[in-house]
Amino acid sequence: MDLSRFTRIDPTTWQIEPTGAMRVPGVIYADETLIRDMDEKVYEQTANVAMLPGVVKAVYVMPDAHWGYGFPIGGVAAFDADEGGVISAGGVGFDVSCGVRTMLTGLKAADIKPVQKELVDSLYQQVPVGLGSKGAIVLDPEEMDAMLTGGARWAIARGWGETRDLDRIEEHGQMAGADPSCVSDRAKERQRREMGTLGSGNHYLEVQAVTEIFDQEAAGAYGLKPDDVVVTIHCGSRGLGHQIGTEYLREMLAAAAAAGIALPDRELACTPIKSEVGQRYLGAMRAATNCALANREIIGHYARKVFGHFFPKAELTLLFDVSHNTCKVEAHKTDGASKPIYVHRKGATRAFGPGHPDLPEALRNVGQPVLIGGSMGTGSYVLAGAAGSEDLSFASACHGAGRAMSRHAALRAWSGRQIIKDLANRGILIRSPSVRGVAEEAPGAYKDVGAVVMAAEEAGLARRVARLRPLVCIKG
Amino acid sequence: MVVQRNMLTPGWEDFPHGADVGIRGWGPTLEQAFEQAALALTGVLTDADIENRTSVEVECDAPDVEVLFVEWLNAIIYEMAVRNMIFGAFKVTINGLHLRGTMWGEPVDQTKHAPACEPKGATYTALRVSQGADGTWSAECIIDV
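^ Those are the sequences you sent over. The predicted structure of the assembly is below.
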């Protein structure tokens, strides 16, 4: 990216001054190398979002940002319903409430070694992954609606999860305001046999070990010690969310035109929050959020079953479950006073700082766990929301490493078989239905996750707590 | 897979996008461009041969031809998801802004097809349906995978 187009506020804060139809500035958080390597499209998409009606304060972009759909991936934008603010299906994304959960196991890396191969094979057998996989759970229309309103709470009531998990899930496991009648029959049909499935693309289930602790106090509160084994799951609302995204995106094209909103890019299709379509989308999107929360709870239950077989005394307790494709109504200070606004996070994680009233008591002093998925080979991070994130980014931080290279280019650069072999030599076992899929998700196709989280820390969005290395990876 | 682009004969290719993948189909008619783009969508998923064992018919409407293209791709993605099928041949007829499509394929077999990913939806990003000076139609957009 051409750095001369920005006002550099500090080493990790780059501002796009409002020009033309932009109503607010754009602010990208990144170090010089990361921003230089970002696609010019990130600049363009950030400026486009800043043109939408009712946008508040600034459009924020996280250090892992890349070219997305309408919104950049890694984009955060908030809208005020009272000022004609909009809601955008593209600003949430096709995979509504896609997110990450990490569970503690109480085991050490050395405990995994003797059963590593059997463990990866059992997990691969238990958790359906990839195109063509169907879950063991089939929902009839009544159960579908119960799931869409109940979220993780529904899954737990059916025996797929533990009640104590709820405190460690955003919205306490159940998104309020979900309305299954706003979800089409086609979307429900697409989900009928997909509960408890992982999906594909960048979705995964990993068994990881803590390799480094950066913040003793937060690590203590999170229950993380060196060599501890955790299970991390990355997936979303599956076919239901994809279909809702698809259908409302088209509907919002017409709604935007009807409301007289000039769209700089059709993918930014949006509608006033205070409109019939806007309210219906909110009902559907919240239902899809519950679907994602239920799905991760069920996959967590499957992981518990497999671990229970190999380690009868192991207890898998949920550290936290966060979503990174969302629109949430949250109170933030905009013009001095705090007021409820609609915060879109497209490939960005909520990152409440210490003392936030929504955090469970055990985590309140240190801040919300922010779970950052890296690539298969390089590892992942656990961060803690920083106090300053409220003013800097509506309490948001990055969500992953972010792709540095297209799937296309990755496929040309690497062989999936060779990656699987190389990682096995380093003690990391991969299972996937597709060697080509593994090549597309090659470790080298991602940005340096260490640089991304360092930039998030320097910018004051979140601070590093622990680094995790993969032992086992189930890849969709 | 990238094929040599020859405008005189129908063809398809994929093209890079930051996180996902773009697909492009072309041919002497709009219908053929749409059919070729559907083959490109399948090409994103698998390099394996697909047997044309079962056919599925779909219809779509849209306010313009570009949205119609997205609707067509989303109709394929939907049928793939709910029927658990993968398609290897397509036939399209377009009257005004109404499309009738037939697709032929077989149930997904993870061993045989080894699908590299699962498409979530076709997007309006890099969406373009156009006719070149030589009369060739081309249709393209980004697929979220």
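Chain B has a mean pLDDT of 93. Residues 48 and 113 of chain B are 5 Å apart (CA to CA).

Shout if you want it in another format.
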